[in-house]
């Protein structure tokens, strides 16, 4: 490991159940259950599926319906056009089809892979065709059409990193008059009744090709500003997240050498991707600042958990996971649709960053059908421990910091045998701390070149021996509340007074919250078994990828749009490296 001596260049700029109407089927994920004829099946919400073994699985819409096979109908459509000779897709069948039942789908593709003559590849790359073009340049300064400035455009100052060692000048989350300890459940909104029975329009269209309805579609001017305390606190949290990403992406590039990256299998082109991702964060930080106004927090000082490139990558795939999931958790609850629109367009980029860091870590890029959403207090819990201090007068947050849930046998992504992971094989105590990469070479997958066992950077990697699997025992320890965390150690971890003893492990992944019983082995340790629940019958397992686990005193039924109601019952919160 070669470190450059302490970071010289860096970031300045740091300014900167209701009973529905008779024909309405209420389904939490919007999926329409195909009615037969005009009959619409009414599904009671809040159904709890009978537990398999010890696993208590809840389903949010009670829907279990085998659709008619889409694959077979596609195949029969495709058969019609297939009588035109031998196609490339048939030629490849000697390697075995990837989709066993998908037959009769031969298509007239060119088969060119066998005919490439490599000695004919280009070898000189000088001037080529001059295409039609004009001279044009982006307007700048006060010119018409010039863009607004970036809040943090240049990396020109010096940075410091590491833990905070001072005394906080203020303590605790932003708060005001509090009306209760929990938010009670209410009946279904009486206006939530729309159901289309015949596929025709039910109301006049305001204009051609313009079905009635939608929010922000009546011609009123958009206002791209937060519209409530909820919006303000959510976007401020998002800005704290963008700032650390901007710094950490740059930090890896600044503190590891080209050789360090090469040893981790990453080229200069890959480093360029990381550099560009940091620049994306400049844009995101500016956007969120603009939607907040002059109290938008500036960049802070951070304390990172990595000492190798592999650990840097692992940290980033975790950091961007809770950054992305944190936004999915609140984006549709925002009062301002305009803010939600722009935020969605930035979080789509963050989602790509998360996948790129997984690929650089040799993890399967996206092992889930659905990315999950988590409450703001969850992402703040994960983020705060990595912020060591913020400048005086930095706007503070209203979200909760939960006690940390430590996964003792967190699978080490750097091992070819995840089963061999020892206790606490992570670089530290914080939830997103990466797996230790400095393990014996014979145990490491990093430089292996064996399909199913290698974990060097790749578009995709199979793991013959999975990181985790249904039924695996997962051991935990957890912190008591009352610890100082976050910028200037000025926030305190807490548990809502309504929460009782921890009884369950809540697994938040994909569209689902699945509970398993917690077996306590001491007041602050215990274990459970990874659940086998599927998001849809016959679909993949819910628990996969980088996901979230909480200790709770209840197995209350929650779905993606009311997940934050779990917060008063959360006793500790962790991040689980499934896969
Ligand atoms: C959360 O929403 C689901 C409907 O999707 C409902 O069945 C459940 O009761 C709600 N939970 C609470 C605690 O309100
Ligand atoms: C997962 O969530 C989806 C969408 O709400 C639901 O249809 C499905 O039944 C859930 N699966 C389980 C096992 O709870
Ligand atoms: C490949 O291209 C080289 C250079 O044009 C030629 O000499 C050679 O015969 C070609 N090989 C085949 C198999 O076509
Ligand atoms: C237009 O729609 C918005 C919500 O998107 C609503 O607040 C506003 O009252 C509507 N304006 C008119 C004139 O109906
Ligand atoms: C602190 O923040 C408040 C509110 O944003 C602002 O009015 C005040 O000028 C700031 N003070 C300093 C010293 O920056
Ligand atoms: C946090 O600590 C830093 C470094 O000691 C200090 O400059 C800053 O003013 C502190 N921030 C607050 C809000 O106290
Ligand atoms: C998990 O906990 C169980 C029961 O306390 C123990 O037998 C087992 O060795 C632990 N496994 C790991 C990997 O720590
Ligand atoms: C990992 O542990 C599980 C559970 O004991 C076992 O079934 C599996 O075979 C182990 N994997 C390997 C590759 O030994
Ligand atoms: C990996 O193994 C394959 C098959 O043995 C070989 O073609 C390839 O060159 C090897 N790659 C490296 C980087 O060693
Ligand atoms: C990759 O994993 C899948 C699912 O486990 C398996 O069916 C497939 O054969 C594996 N492919 C390779 C190349 O190992
Ligand atoms: C997790 O995803 C990987 C990659 O798609 C897959 O091979 C594995 O079987 C999945 N694990 C579970 C428990 O579904």
UniProtKB/TrEMBL annotation:
Organism in which the protein naturally occurs: Aureobasidium namibiae CBS 147.97
Span of the signal peptide: 1-18
The name this protein goes by in its record: Protein rds1
GO molecular function, one term: structural constituent of cell wall
InterPro entries cross-referenced by the UniProt entry: Rds1, Yeast_PIR_rpt
Pfam short name (any one): PIR
TM helices/strands, residue ranges: none
UniProt KW Signal keyword: yes
UniProt keyword terms in alphabetical order: Signal
């Amino acid at each position: 490991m070669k470190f450059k001596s302490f970071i010289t260049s860096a970031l300045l700029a740091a300014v900167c159940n209701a009973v529905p109407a008779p024909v309405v089927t209420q389904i939490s994920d919007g999926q329409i259950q195909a009615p037969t004829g005009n009959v619409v099946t009414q599904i009671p919400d809040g159904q709890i599926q009978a537990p398999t073994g010890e696993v208590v699985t809840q389903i949010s819409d009670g829907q279990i319906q085998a659709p008619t096979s889409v694959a077979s109908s596609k195949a029969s459509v495709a058969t019609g056009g297939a009588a035109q000779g031998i196609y490339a897709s048939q030629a490849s069948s000697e390697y075995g089809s990837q989709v066993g039942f998908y037959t009769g789908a031969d298509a007239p593709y060119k088969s060119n892979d066998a005919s490439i003559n490599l000695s004919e590849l280009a070898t000189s790359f000088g001037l080529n065709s001059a295409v039609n073009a004009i001279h044009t340049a982006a307007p700048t300064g006060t010119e018409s059409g010039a863009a607004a400035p970036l809040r943090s455009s240049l990396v020109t100052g010096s940075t410091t990193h590491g833990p905070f060692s001072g005394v906080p000048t203020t303590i605790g989350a932003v708060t005001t008059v509090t009306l209760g300890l929990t938010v009670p459940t209410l009946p279904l909104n009486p206006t939530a009744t729309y159901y289309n029975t015949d596929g025709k329009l039910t109301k006049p269209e305001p204009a051609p090709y313009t079905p009635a309805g939608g929010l922000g579609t009546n011609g009123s001017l958009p206002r791209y500003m937060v519209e409530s305390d909820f919006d303000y606190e959510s976007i401020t949290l998002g800005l704290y997240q963008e700032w650390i990403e901007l710094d950490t992406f740059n930090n890896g590039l600044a503190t590891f050498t080209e050789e360090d990256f090469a040893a981790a299998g990453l080229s200069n082109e890959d480093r360029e991707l990381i550099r560009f991702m940091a620049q994306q964060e400049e844009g995101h930080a500016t956007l969120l600042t603009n939607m907040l106004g002059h109290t938008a927090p500036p960049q802070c000082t951070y304390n990172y958990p990595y000492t190798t490139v592999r650990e840097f990558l692992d940290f980033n795939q975790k950091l961007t996971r809770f950054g992305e999931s944190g936004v999915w958790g609140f984006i549709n609850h925002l009062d301002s649709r305009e803010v939600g629109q722009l935020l969605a367009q930035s979080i789509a980029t963050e989602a790509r960053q998360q996948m790129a860091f997984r690929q650089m870590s040799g993890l399967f890029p996206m092992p889930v059908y659905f990315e999950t959403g988590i409450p703001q207090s969850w992402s703040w819990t994960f983020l705060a421990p990595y912020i060591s201090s913020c400048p005086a007068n930095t706007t503070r947050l209203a979200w909760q910091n939960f006690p940390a849930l430590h996964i003792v046998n967190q699978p080490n992504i750097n091992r070819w045998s995840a089963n061999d992971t020892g206790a606490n094989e992570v670089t530290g105590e914080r939830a997103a701390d990466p797996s230790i990469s400095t393990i014996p070479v014979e145990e490491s997958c990093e430089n292996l070149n064996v399909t199913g066992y290698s974990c060097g950077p790749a578009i995709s990697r199979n793991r013959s021996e999975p990181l985790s699997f249904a039924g695996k025992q997962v051991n935990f320890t957890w912190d008591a509340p009352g610890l100082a965390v976050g910028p200037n150690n000025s926030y305190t971890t807490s548990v809502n007074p309504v929460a009782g003893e921890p009884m369950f492990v809540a697994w938040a992944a994909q569209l689902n919250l699945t509970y398993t019983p917690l077996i306590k082995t001491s007041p602050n340790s215990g274990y459970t078994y990874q659940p086998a629940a599927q998001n849809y019958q016959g679909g993949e397992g819910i628990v996969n990828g980088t996901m979230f686990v909480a200790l709770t005193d209840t197995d209350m039924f929650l779905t993606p749009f009311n997940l934050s109601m779990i917060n008063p019952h959360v006793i500790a919160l962790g991040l689980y490296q499934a896969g």
